[in-house]
Amino acid sequence: MNIDISLYKDEYKQQVINLIISIQKDEFNINVDKDERPDLQDIQNNYINNNSGCFWLALYNNNVVGTISIKHISQNKLALQNMYIHKDFRGSIYNTATKLLKQTIDFAYKNEAKEIYLGTAADFYAAHKFYERNGFSQVDKEILPSTFPIMDLDDKFYELIL
After folding, report:
1. Do residues 19 and 26 lie in contact, with contact meaning Cβ atoms separated by under 8 Å?
2. Is there a contact between 157 and 144 (Cβ–Cβ < 8 Å)?
3. Across the chain, how many H-helices and E-strands are there?
4. pTM, entire model
5. How far, in Å, are 20, 64, 125, 136 from residue 23 at the CA level?
6. Cα dist. 9→14, 22, 45 in Å?
7. What pLDDT digit, counting tens, does each position of 83-113 carry?
8. For the chain, which domains are there?
């Protein structure tokens, strides 16, 4: 039951898209399709190139079971995005979310970031508990850096001071 965390590779692109879109549609009842997520069509340029951030995969038997990304939004400030875990790989048996979050926090420290911000939906209660357990504090939208990429669903925001 070993989950491997690895940097994004294009060979996993379709699995990433399928995972994220299926969770958004099937679990969160978000009416979205892959065309509404152009960022996922070119993860390399949108999240990794030009030292803008990073994108990791949680792999189980070479299958994508989780994703997370982090992106520079201003000096010393990062945005955590794309935290999606397949429902069968959530919880303490696999610790997939914790392993992915650790990658982003390690990246933040190595890049001398001072703050990580994220947005989520108000009814994603399990996510709220997870972030709070891991040191994030809820903040008002007005506190966010002007460069923070707010998604349509985001109505609850968190900050982690490093």
Report:
1. no
2. yes
3. 4, 7
4. 0.92
5. 5, 13, 15, 23
6. 11, 20, 12
7. 999 999 998 889 999 999 999 999 999 999 9
8. 4-161 (3.40.630.30)
